[in-house]
Design a protein that fits this description.
Number of strands of chain B: 13
Shape of chain B: globular
Shape of chain A: globular
CATH superfamily of the largest domain in chain A: Nitrogenase molybdenum iron protein domain
Distance between the termini of chain B: 45 Å
CATH topology of the largest domain in chain A: Rossmann fold
Radius of gyration of chain B: 25 Å
Largest sheet of chain B: 5 strands, parallel
Number of strands of chain A: 14
Oligomer: heterodimer
Helix content of chain B: 40-55%
Distance between the termini of chain A: 18 Å
CATH architecture of the largest domain in chain A: 3-Layer(aba) Sandwich
Number of domains of chain A: 3
CATH class of the largest domain in chain A: Alpha Beta
Largest interface: A-B, 128 and 109 residues
Radius of gyration of chain A: 23 Å
């Protein structure tokens, strides 16, 4: 039943060529560069990435606006984020990403609201700058406790020649230097969400750090100050991470950007170390802070007890013995919980095969958590990864793993059909396709409305969720007993 | 440590444990958080008349609108045709959004492709994206029709769909005879209901008017059949099946134009059906010969109906008819148009609905409701509420026009229960928030986003509308027909009884009214 490594590689290569055979030649040539069978000794996954999606193939990717408003800026809770342009973009992304936060929504926090300039034809024809000017006034009137405003550009803004930077500067002056951030994240820019992350990072650099000026510090620095970078607090991920860092003796002065605030962004240069979870979406600002303020940054992975422990030790290695001892104390404290979780779920999940297709860091970061449960990831790919992501992925994947970059709906269906994994982890657009096929599925963007999955507390939920997906009795009911064949 | 392997704590209980509560409190020191007294003052201020006036004085800012953009409606209309792949010309992120939006509501896959235009296409136009996109979609997904619409990006740069599709066909992207209806659906005009209308019209035009000049237009030979258009409808699965049942009982010869009932309700049996059900393309073409076309949502099909009328069809337009009188009007119109009698079975169904209303109306009579949603849905719902003796105090549609408002006002004027009720065209849910604080009602009817209003104003929410993300499977149950009215009645009653029970559940304090018979 179990294939040898060579058989797996041969099968995967065959599956790739089968999928490619359906495309027109020109497209097949393009897509071939994004699909590969990983060779265990190579320094990358052997696929091209961060390239334009082919038209008409049902890419799963989103756009730059999604990367900026939906990912990086949207979770900053005490700022009003204007979806600037027609109504749709803000509507479809409204409160959908589960960036948890504490606050009184509509009064001092605004994450799960949809602020839009609702462009009409006249705004396209005559430009939207005057409307934007007025919108800022109306926000100030109706939401006076907001700590700042961002302008998230939708496609038309860059096409009709609006000068949102000029409006932002003018309004900032009118409101005593208020932070008003124009973001040029029009959806047609770049090839995916990824450029939106970069543009959003640059907007923080330009309009919070460089134009923000010096503000009186909110707190006295300590040698143990760190900032969590690239955790969007989906289902509370940043919280179940923060608690571990604090328990080991560190002080978290900022969260980027889940449950984050403008003050936290502004105060991050005081941190002694930036710890970076989602490398893809926030490496840019981390590098900037390193160059500009001399703050080192370190990547970490809080999925599954093996990687959590490894990461706690890595983070601690940047501090003195007090923190190193703290890390050991935390690891020891949670060991019995982790042992109990693994004892409960591993026997139910051991040997199960998983295929992933997600964004950001997850196509590699979650592999360790599955392995902690005795599961095996046999295929993975990134919606909007770059080459450096695929290099990092080699530290996680096994020889022979099927790799698919910017997978198309057709390819993914084909791959899953042929590889027959026990679980697929991907997004809402994919979920029902595979469940119809009788394949257990978990959404690995939104945690399927569960979570947190980060940290020790999160791993218990992760393990429980994977078990309930795979060992759901419904999968025994998909064929009617009177139907012929299998 | 509060997490536990035996009984795993989910987010809704995990973060209430003391260690997390303390952590949240300590985090405030880094947040520049608003001092509590100042915050409370502001919270209270947003509930006032003064705030309401400021709020209603807004001219530019839109907050929590109850509408989406045209291409969403375009996709909805397109998937209702057999083996049809919607193709949205423009930026690709939009398509990711539409697919997610529908999947979150229907809990079903939604297939749709984009031409993935990027910066170079913004400069040079998206012709190559159309050429490659059609070829790829055709080869990969083997549709029988590709229905093209546009995102705002393609509209702003002025891409010419007609010319592009012609060129793509010349270049062999798809066969010359392959059906590629198209329509422009700018997101900055109208809303999702406009996009539905434009796309439905474009598909009919395509089949009836000679397929973009490639064939002679069809010559109408009037027959006895009727066409039925449901419109953009979150309950399409249940509603269309119910309408088919009603037509079946009456023996009507009909064509459903845009039949999404199977598309968004496929079985889990080991097979993914990218296409399932939908109006057969031959039936869509033959629909030109119908005697009449019925639309359940007039504001969702204005251009389509004008086009159909020009073809010589008799047109019957409803506003999401609900309840006894709404269904009566619908059935009588069907009977008139087809010459088919309304069978005794349906008369009995009607009687059962009237029976149920008579049994329960004491609990609904005089209750005040706020409702929002699409123009036709709010009209239909308001009519049903008036019929139940309830008062639809605030009726709001972000995509409601002055014409819609006049229609709602006329409805309110027709009933003693409509006195003191008001209509709010073009307003959003932040306006509704002020209305609920300053003129409270007993219940709110709306889509999932209404839960934010429920949280802030404590007005119990009855979920009817689109999208419904946080309750499952209601789209499978019809709102139309006597049976649909029954479902709606029960939904409203359940909420009313739940609220009474929750209000009387304190032992020794309020539970004298915690009655077992209501």
């Amino acid at each position: 039943m179990d294939l040898t490594l060579d058989e797996v590689k041969a099968r995967n290569a065959e599956v790739i060529s089968e999928a490619l055979s359906v495309y027109p030649d020109k497209t097949a040539k393009k897509r071939a560069k994004h699909l590969n069978v990983y060779e265990g000794d190579k320094p990358d996954c052997g696929v091209k990435s961060n390239i334009k999606s082919v038209p008409g193939v049902m890419t799963i990717r989103g756009c730059a606006y999604a990367g900026s408003k939906g990912v990086v800026w949207g979770p900053i809770k005490d700022m009003v984020h204007i979806s600037h342009g027609p109504v749709g973009c803000g509507q479809y992304s409204w409160a959908a990403r589960r960036n948890y936060y504490i606050g009184v929504t509509g009064v001092d926090t605004f994450v799960t609201m949809q602020f839009t300039s609702d462009f009409q034809e006249k705004d396209i024809v005559f430009g939207g700058d005057k409307k934007l000017d007025k919108i800022v006034d109306e926000i100030q009137k109706l939401f006076p406790l907001n700590h700042g405003i961002t302008i998230q550009s939708e496609c038309p803004i860059g096409l009709i020649g609006d000068d949102i930077e000029a409006v932002a500067k003018k309004k900032s002056k009118e409101y005593d230097g208020k932070t008003i951030v124009p973001v040029r994240c029009e959806g047609f820019r770049g090839v995916s969400q990824s450029l939106g992350h970069h543009i959003a990072n640059d907007a923080v650099r330009d309009w919070v750090f460089e134009k923000g000026g010096d503000k009186p510090p909110l707190f006295e620095s300590t040698p143990y100050d760190v900032a969590i970078i690239g955790d969007y607090n989906i289902g509370g991920d940043a919280w179940s991470s923060r608690i571990l860092l604090e328990e080991m003796g560190l002080r978290v002065v900022a969260q980027w950007s889940g449950d984050g605030s403008l003050a936290e962004l502004e105060n991050t240069p005081k941190a002694k170390l930036n710890i970076l979870h989602c490398y893809r979406s926030m490496n840019y600002i981390s590098r900037y802070m390193e160059e500009k303020f001399g703050i080192p940054w370190v990547e970490y992975n809080f999925f599954g007890p093996s990687k959590v422990a490894e990461s706690l030790r890595t983070i601690a290695s940047h501090f003195d013995d007090r923190i190193k001892e703290g890390a050991e104390r935390v690891i020891a404290k949670y060991q019995p919980l982790m042992d109990a979780v693994i004892a409960k779920y591993k026997p139910r999940l051991e040997g199960k095969k998983v295929m992933l297709y997600v964004g950001g860091l997850r196509p590699r970061h979650v592999i360790g958590a599955y392995e902690d449960l005795g599961m095996e990831v046999i295929g993975t790919g990134y919606e909007f990864g770059h080459n450096d992501d695929y290099q990092r992925t080699t530290h996680y994947v096994k020889d022979g793993t099927l790799i698919y970059d910017d997978v198309t709906g057709y390819e993914f269906e084909k791959f899953v059909d042929r590889l027959q994994p026990d679980l697929v982890g991907s997004g809402i657009k994919e979920k029902y396709v595979f469940q119809k096929m009788g394949v257990p599925f978990r959404q690995m963007h939104s945690w399927d409305y569960s979570g947190p999955y980060h940290g020790y507390d999160g791993f218990a939920i992760f393990a429980r969720d994977m078990d309930m997906a795979i060992n759901n009795p419904v999968w025994g009911l998909t064929r009617a007993p009177w139907s012929a064949g299998q | 440590m509060s997490q536990n392997a035996e009984k795993v704590l989910d987010h809704f209980s995990l973060f209430r444990s003391q260690e997390y509560v303390d952590m949240f409190e300590n985090k405030k020191a880094f947040e520049n958080a608003v001092p509590l007294t100042e915050l409370q003052t502001a919270v209270d201020w947003t509930k006032t008349r003064e705030y309401r006036e400021l709020n209603f004085a807004r001219e530019a800012l839109v907050v929590n609108p109850a509408k989406a953009c045209q291409p969403l409606g375009a996709v909805f209309a397109a998937v209702g045709f057999e083996k049809t792949l919607p193709f949205v010309h423009g930026s690709q992120g939009c398509v990711a959004y539409y697919r997610s939006h529908f999947s979150r509501h229907f809990k079903e896959p939604t297939s749709c492709v984009s031409s993935s235009m990027t910066e170079d296409a913004a400069v040079f136009g998206g012709l190559n994206n159309m050429i490659d996109g059609l070829a790829n979609a055709y080869n990969l997904y083997k549709p029988e029709m590709i229905a093209v619409s546009t995102t705002c990006m393609a509209e702003v740069i002025g891409d010419d769909l007609n010319a592009f599709i012609k060129t793509a066909k010349e270049k062999g992207s798809v066969p010359a005879k392959f059906d590629v209806p198209f329509t422009h659906t700018p997101a900055f005009v109208g809303s999702h209901v406009t996009g539905y209308d434009n796309t439905m019209k474009s598909i009919l035009e395509h089949f009836w008017d000679g397929k973009a000049g490639t064939e002679p237009p069809l010559v109408r030979e009037p027959r006895d059949s009727i066409n039925f258009i449901g419109g953009f409808d979150g309950y399409a699965v249940g509603n269309i099946r119910e309408v088919k049942r009603l037509f079946g009982l009456m023996g009507v010869d009909y064509t459903i134009l845009g039949d999404t009932s199977d598309v968004w309700d496929t079985p889990t049996d080991g097979r993914f059906r990218m296409y399932d059900g939908g109006t057969p393309l031959a039936a869509a073409a033959a629909a030109v010969h119908a005697r009449a076309t019925i639309s359940m949502q007039e504001f969702c099909t204005q251009k389509t109906l004008a086009y159909v009328a020009k073809k010589g069809h008799e047109v019957a337009a409803f506003n999401h008819p609900m309840g006894v009188a709404g269904t009566d009007r619908f059935l009588m119109e069907v009977a008139r148009l087809t010459g088919r009698a309304i069978p005794e079975d349906l008369t009995r169904e009607r009687g059962r609905l009237v029976d149920a209303i008579a049994d329960s109306s004491a609990h609904i009579h005089g209750k005040k409701f706020a409702l929002y949603g699409d123009p036709d849905l709010t009209l239909g719902l308001a009519g049903f509420l008036l019929e139940l003796g309830a008062e639809p105090v605030h009726i709001l549609a972000t995509n409601g026009t002055p014409e819609w408002a006049a229609r709602v006002q006329a409805l309110l004027d027709s009933s003693p229960f409509g006195k003191g009720c008001h209509v709010y065209p073009g307003r959003d849910l932040w306006h509704m928030r002020s209305l609920l604080f300053t003129e409270p009602v007993d219940f709110l009817i709306g889509n999932t986003y209404g839960k934010f209003l429920e949280r802030d104003t404590r007005t119990p929410l009855i979920r009817i509308g689109f999208p419904i993300f946080d309750r499952h499977h209601h789209h499978r149950y019809p709102l139309w027909g006597y049976q649909g009215a029954m479902n709606t009645l029960v939904k409203i009653l359940d909420k009313i009884f739940d609220v009474i029970d929750a209000d009387t559940i304190v032992p020794g304090k309020t539970d004298y009214s915690f009655d077992i018979i209501r």
